[in-house]
């Protein structure tokens, strides 16, 4: 019997079957219903999966000390973690507990949609309500504005300042700034010029990664714009001289040759390596976090830090990032166990371990012996940040995600010479107008 | 059977039904043969289509049609990937048309695809010809050239990023020749796009070399011998005999390479992350930036649809220009 199916008919039939199947599976975007948080999700689990980014050296050793439930630590690429977080937190194999960033409220809709567990009880039971400074607590409360908290802060980061190698500065005849603070911009310029004269490039930064440049911008902005305004990104006039000043200053440094040549094509790790090789005087590190710089070849004894120079009428300040924490994806099981483990993670005992192992600075302030555990660099930074008017939250914490992303990507373009400062700032103003 | 006979009975030949047979098949019922029971045959053929087509159809539905349909649907919404989407009609497409950066990214992608394809085809052709002519050391030469193909692209890109660092080995070597200020390969917006194109060619040439070499092995030795007797040089034989003979393979490879480079993502992302600024951003990195980093799934989907349309147009044009003539013949 001859088949009456020619190629064309077969293809049409197959495509028809495919299209019918595909269309029948289509739902409306965002209409996938609420996360299943029923009995299954509340059942106890044999082990807790704790997902965090690969740069965190503390997660494994701290989790290993926890004995109540077995904890499996999974670490993933830090550069794409935040971008992947919505899928991680809503997937059927979501971890029981996951690292999280509060940045710009980029995951607020996730919490509002019931995808993250309310952790108000963890804050209370683990004493965070009393131990965490009000400013940080406010950030978590403002995350959704519904009076609940969906994340628990595990650590804070310092940025908008620089590491330097004492031996390199000494060899170039540069006197480090007294008490970590440059008296003036002129003092900083003189130091950079001396380094250059000695054949050493002044400043290493991993410009390929984007955010280290915006950290420099934040640090410089602190001496130009009042903290209240920096923390209200929708009130800033992005065409104002105040906002433009740090961007113009970075451009000026680039033109003067203060950045190590090739910095726009270099990652943070590569920038740290250059610093480790004594080829540059200063480095931004990553969030000015000692372990990565030490890992890249700089001995801790040769290391010290300073603020960025003041470029305006206000004193320069250290920027604080307080948005690093952990959450519980609602879809995963073992909520009770995850909350117990979470309470342990933010306990003073674990905080002290984190400080000893990875110089991680906890959000809570009631940790005895913290400064000693952090060592000379981390300890002095925390001591400095605790002084009045010496630290503040940066712009990229409360700013909307698209504005942050635009800023990060296009600071590169400004420094590469393909975008003018005016056009860069005008686009931010346009993005702000959309949000309003 | 000699080489010429083999050509006549190429794999394509049996699939083509002779015109006379087709005419006879069409004419048979008119010539008084038994009248086919059309309704029953249609039902039977439909059943067969469903039975045989369902597995393939299901796979296509899940992995091809569904994502395409969903991308198109998402593209008419303002959606962050989490909360409820808002219908905005063609709003994303309007923005796409007005987006100067998108136009730049399309330009970058086309530049990479055109130059990357030409480069990898020319280099692959020359390497393959050298191996086919059994140049000294051709075996190790063939192995070495294929290494970039089997290396993971991200590893290749990271390797090149280290080699091409301003203070890396390449610039150190340039420094030995007395160049005080060697190029900033990945940090200078005027240089970085060319580096991406170069690394893409390096990465792809082994693959093109292998396929072209396979096609070259089928070129009859007699043609080479005859041309040699006529005094044709190696280059002349490559241009006048080999290239016309393997035209079909070259055409197919060109399309594959072009489309592959047009949707490049991994090599650019690992090498420059689209920077400095947006100097090396291509459609793939731009899409990921918009959809995932900025959380604009709707706009990212519009970029994906735009990318699909561009690739479809390019594929059809290429197919007609490069392969259409062969099919007509």
TrEMBL record, chain A:
PROSITE patterns per the UniProt record, alphabetical: PROKAR_LIPOPROTEIN (PS51257), TAT (PS51318)
InterPro entries: Bact_solute-bd_prot1, SBP, TAT_signal
SUPFAM superfamilies xref list: Periplasmic binding protein-like II (SSF53850)
Listed transmembrane segments: none
PANTHER family, per the entry: ARABINOSE-BINDING PROTEIN-RELATED, BLR3389 PROTEIN
Protein name: Sugar ABC transporter substrate-binding protein
Organism: Dactylosporangium siamense
Lineage: Bacteria, Bacillati, Actinomycetota, Actinomycetes, Micromonosporales
From TrEMBL, chain B:
Entry annotated with the keyword Transmembrane: yes
Residue ranges, annotated region (Disordered): 1-40
Chief location of this protein within or outside the cell: membrane
Alphabetically ordered keywords of this record: Cell membrane, Membrane, Transmembrane, Transmembrane helix, Transport
Location of this chain's protein in the cell: Cell membrane
Gene3D superfamilies per record: MetI-like
Superkingdom classification of source: Bacteria
Membrane topology: Multi-pass membrane protein
A single GO cellular-component term on record: plasma membrane
Annotated CDD domains: TM_PBP2
Membrane-spanning parts: 45-69, 110-131, 143-163, 191-213, 255-277, 297-319
Pfam families assigned: BPD_transp_1
Biased composition (Low complexity): 9-34
Span of domain ABC transmembrane type-1: 106-318
InterPro entries xref list: ABC_transporter_permease (IPR051393), MetI-like (IPR000515), MetI-like_sf (IPR035906)
Entry's Gene Ontology BP terms: transmembrane transport
Family: Belongs to the binding-protein-dependent transport system permease family.
Name recorded for this polypeptide: Sugar ABC transporter permease
Organism, as annotated: Dactylosporangium siamense
């Amino acid at each position: 019997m001859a088949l009456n199916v020619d190629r064309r008919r077969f293809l049409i039939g197959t495509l028809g079957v495919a299209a019918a199947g595909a269309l029948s599976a289509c739902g409306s975007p965002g209409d996938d219903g609420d996360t299943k948080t029923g009995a299954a999700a509340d059942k106890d689990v044999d082990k807790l999966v704790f997902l965090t980014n690969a740069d965190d050296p503390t997660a494994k050793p701290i989790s290993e000390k926890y004995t109540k439930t077995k904890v499996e630590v999974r670490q993933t690429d830090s550069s794409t973690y935040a971008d992947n977080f919505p899928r991680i937190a809503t997937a059927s194999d979501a971890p029981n507990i996951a690292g999280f960033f509060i940045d710009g409220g980029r995951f607020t809709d996730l919490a509002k949609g019931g995808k993250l567990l309310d952790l108000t009880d963890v804050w209370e039971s683990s004493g965070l309500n009393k131990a965490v400074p009000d400013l940080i607590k406010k950030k978590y409360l403002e995350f959704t504005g519904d009076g609940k908290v969906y994340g628990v802060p595990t650590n804070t980061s310092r940025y908008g300042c620089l590491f330097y190698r004492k031996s390199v500065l000494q060899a170039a005849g540069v006197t480090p700034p007294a008490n970590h603070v440059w008296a003036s911009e002129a003092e900083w310029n003189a130091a950079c010029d001396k380094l250059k004269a000695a054949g050493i490039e002044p400043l290493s930064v991993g410009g390929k990664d984007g955010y280290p440049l915006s950290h420099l911008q934040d640090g410089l902005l602190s001496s130009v714009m009042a903290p209240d305004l920096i923390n209200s990104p929708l009130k800033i006039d992005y065409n104002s001289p105040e906002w433009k000043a740090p961007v113009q200053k970075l451009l000026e440094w680039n033109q003067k040759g203060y950045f190590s040549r090739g910095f726009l094509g270099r990652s943070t790790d590569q920038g740290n390596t250059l610093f480790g090789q004594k080829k540059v005087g200063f480095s931004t590190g990553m969030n000015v976090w000692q372990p990565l710089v030490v890992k890249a070849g700089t001995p801790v004894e040769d290391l010290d830090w300073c603020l960025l120079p003041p470029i305006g009428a206000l004193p320069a300040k250290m920027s604080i990032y307080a948005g690093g924490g952990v959450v519980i994806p609602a879809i995963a099981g073992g909520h009770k166990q995850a909350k117990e483990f979470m309470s342990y993670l933010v306990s003073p005992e674990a905080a002290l371990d984190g400080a000893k192992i990875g110089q991680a600075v906890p959000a809570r302030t009631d940790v005895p012996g913290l400064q000693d555990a952090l060592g000379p660099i981390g300890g002095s930074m925390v001591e400095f940040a605790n002084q009045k008017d010496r630290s503040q939250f940066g712009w990229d914490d409360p700013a909307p995600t698209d504005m942050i992303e635009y800023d990060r990507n296009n600071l590169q373009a400004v420094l590469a010479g393909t975008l003018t400062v005016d056009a860069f700032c005008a686009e931010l103003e346009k993005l702000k107008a959309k949000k309003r | 059977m000699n080489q010429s006979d083999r050509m006549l009975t190429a794999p394509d030949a049996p699939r083509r039904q002779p015109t006379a047979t087709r005419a006879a098949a069409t004419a048979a019922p008119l010539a008084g043969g038994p009248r086919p029971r059309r309704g029953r045959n249609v039902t039977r053929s439909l059943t067969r289509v469903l039975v045989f087509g369902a597995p393939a159809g299901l796979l296509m539905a899940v992995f091809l049609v569904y994502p395409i349909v969903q991308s198109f649907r998402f593209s008419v919404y303002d959606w962050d990937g989490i909360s409820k989407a808002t219908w905005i009609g063609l709003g994303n497409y309007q923005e796409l048309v007005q987006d100067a950066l998108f136009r730049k990214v399309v330009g970058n992608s086309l530049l990479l695809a055109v130059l990357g394809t030409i480069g990898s085809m020319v280099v692959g052709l020359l390497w393959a010809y050298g191996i086919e002519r059994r140049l000294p050391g051709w075996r190790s030469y063939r192995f070495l050239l294929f290494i970039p193909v089997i290396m993971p692209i991200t590893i290749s890109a990271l390797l090149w990023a280290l080699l091409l660092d301003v203070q890396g080995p390449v610039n150190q070597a340039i420094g030995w020749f007395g160049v005080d200020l060697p190029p900033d390969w990945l940090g200078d917006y005027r240089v970085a796009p060319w580096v991406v194109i170069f690394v893409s060619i390096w990465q792809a040439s082994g693959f093109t070399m292998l396929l072209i070499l396979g096609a070259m092995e089928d070129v009859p030795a007699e043609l080479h011998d005859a041309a040699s007797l006529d005094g044709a040089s190696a280059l002349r034989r490559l241009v006048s005999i080999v290239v016309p003979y393997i035209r079909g393979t070259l055409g197919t490879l060109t399309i594959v390479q072009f489309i592959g480079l047009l949707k490049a993502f991994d090599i650019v992302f690992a090498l420059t992350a689209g920077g400095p600024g947006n100097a090396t951003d291509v459609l793939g990195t731009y899409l990921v930036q918009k959809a995932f980093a900025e959380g604009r799934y709707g706009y990212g989907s519009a970029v994906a649809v735009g990318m699909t349309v561009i690739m479809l147009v390019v594929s059809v044009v290429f197919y007609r220009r490069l392969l259409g003539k062969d099919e007509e013949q």
